[in-house]
User: Fold this.
Amino acid sequence: MKAILVIGDGMGDRPIKALDCKTPLQVAEKPVLDRLASTGICGIMDPISPGIPPGSDTSHLSLFGYDPHKVYKGRGVFEALGAGLRVEKNDVSIRCNFATVDDNLIVLDRRAGRINTGGKEFETVINDYRLKSYPDVKIIFKHTTEHRGVMILRPIDPHPRFSWKVSDSDPHRTDLPIKSVEPLDNTPEALKTSKLMNELTDEFHSILDSHPHNIKRRSMNLLPANALLFRGASVLPKLESITKLYGIRALVIAAGAQYKGVGIAVGMDSIEVEGATGTTETDTILKAKAVLDNLQNYDYIFVHVKGTDNASHDGDLRKKISMIEKIDALLGHILKNAQTNKLIIAVTADHTTPVEIRDHTGDPVPLLISGPGVRVDKVERFSEIDCAQGSLGRIRGLDLTPILMNLIGKTKKFGV
Amino acid sequence: MKAILVIGDGMGDRPIKALDCKTPLQVAEKPVLDRLASTGICGIMDPISPGIPPGSDTSHLSLFGYDPHKVYKGRGVFEALGAGLRVEKNDVSIRCNFATVDDNLIVLDRRAGRINTGGKEFETVINDYRLKSYPDVKIIFKHTTEHRGVMILRPIDPHPRFSWKVSDSDPHRTDLPIKSVEPLDNTPEALKTSKLMNELTDEFHSILDSHPHNIKRRSMNLLPANALLFRGASVLPKLESITKLYGIRALVIAAGAQYKGVGIAVGMDSIEVEGATGTTETDTILKAKAVLDNLQNYDYIFVHVKGTDNASHDGDLRKKISMIEKIDALLGHILKNAQTNKLIIAVTADHTTPVEIRDHTGDPVPLLISGPGVRVDKVERFSEIDCAQGSLGRIRGLDLTPILMNLIGKTKKFGV
Assistant:
């Protein structure tokens, strides 16, 4: 028996007036999701706990069975792992956004128009950069998807010299200047790390602003990627591998580096899927094919689709609905081609991102589980509203992986 | 007001193809259980937490309100207490199975055909046995039900000399040799305990194999009980008595020693019921009569019926259904003869044991509570599927006893 967990990032929503007070899940055409709901068991799930808006990182940790209150040490490390970087125990990993700023470092666009050109060229100049004032640090930078990248500060001397207890430079909205990174505790390491990052803000702005590719972007009336915003400074959390905990082989299929990264951090293998982009342009059928190709070799496959969240953050209702339909197609392709009598399928979201709020909220998400041995309830459609009537009741994110492992016979008895 | 808690061991199940995708509870004839469900409130319950397959011991601790993650120190002690043995604080109590092995100690039957003869005779020879190589230990053995027994290793010198941190000798399946008991930590006590137990494995095999009763069993084409398998080494957990916590008098009515034992460990009185055997042959009406006889003297009576679990472990669907019907008869007898206007009745299982899996799983169990003051919901039948629609929602095992104590007015206010 195998389990597939499909997560539509930010797929949960609230009733929307323009939809006659229905949610995107309620209006999307999604025959496969509805069939799975009606042949399975449904419920709602608080990824962290009721009312708490999860980050994608803390939520995924929780969904894989790790209590983020205990293990979470910042997000950057997941971006770094997901980008294929090796992360060492003294490394501080930091998420970066390419952004557009004016001459006073006022942020005009936090995503530089979600750039889809120049990433690798920018990566090269940043990676080649060496700060004279901090000779004891190696800066490792990697561009990931769109405007996203990750930077590792690696002490050359092996003693821990840097700290993840520093604030973001990202002001998290436009029309504000890039923020000064501040130490979040009183250690000399946090102070040193914050000073270094502030120096890097200035240096990278100067390098990027005059970069030939940005000159080209300006000439094409595209926003230049002329600054790096830092957020989510982080170190490697200590986690016992999910493969060891349950005696399984596990795989993450995700385009977004941070999702791959959480998977890798908990011990999953990760594969690249060409054409799966982590955007609303992603080809979800290719992801379905990747699932089918790997089903033989894995007990637990986690498939992440990011587009639902992008559409929600952009307030793009139509795109969110169409992404839900793409997830439906992904599931349809799997069901048509897999041996379903040995397959547990779970579908949920990592959090609610209402298109009208454009940010994560603490509303629970819908969840369905379908497959052999599952107790079937009366829910016939997959939505926030329908699933709340389901027989799974209201569970926490932390419960999801044990529930799935139980259904594929991989949990260990506690006691005798 | 009094509360009766009836537990059908392993009564929960999954949809079964041979039953048209219904569960044994859904197809059993159980008018009393259904009447209780329709006049009471229902829900589902995770004995430990969602997805975690409970042992019977951890589950019962939890159902009585004790967090097994905090208090559990192995199972053998419950078997010992339930068998009527006095357990001292330095004792290591070990569950034993009479098993059938070949000359190479390969296990042919882990239960020696669920022996129903010879138990007392075997008990005597084991109890009389003194190991010359370990003069500082007293071995106390008691046969309980069928193939089950319990052994206490009691240090003659009062200093703690033995440890419960040792592995089982029981290979937990047939066609494998009896396992060597291994220390589970680095203490000299664990090492010493494991060595002693391995010596006992050999000595007991030699004593039992040539025992006259086994010669007789062989001549009757019955499997000989010619080895003891050890499992669940354990010491006494420190628990505050349930009678003190709630100011109640509490009674356990169970045939299986381990269930009596958990009751005794949490401070319940225990009585013997003749004809209640802890097997599928048990006479549940006698248990009902014992409840009625003791209702005057107790506030909380816990009635355990084991047969549903035995049938499940044996994959015997018909027997499981008939055991559910016996539980229904038990409840019918109580309801017909008790003063129901002062009675809260709760019925549930300690875990799910699907007949198709033949082992405990982490699926939630159905729960009903009926009696004066209970808020009635719309559930009309007692089953895993129906109860999931009930107004109790999805609770944890730890919540059950406080809920029942609340209904009989025995909980204390927290705060003012």
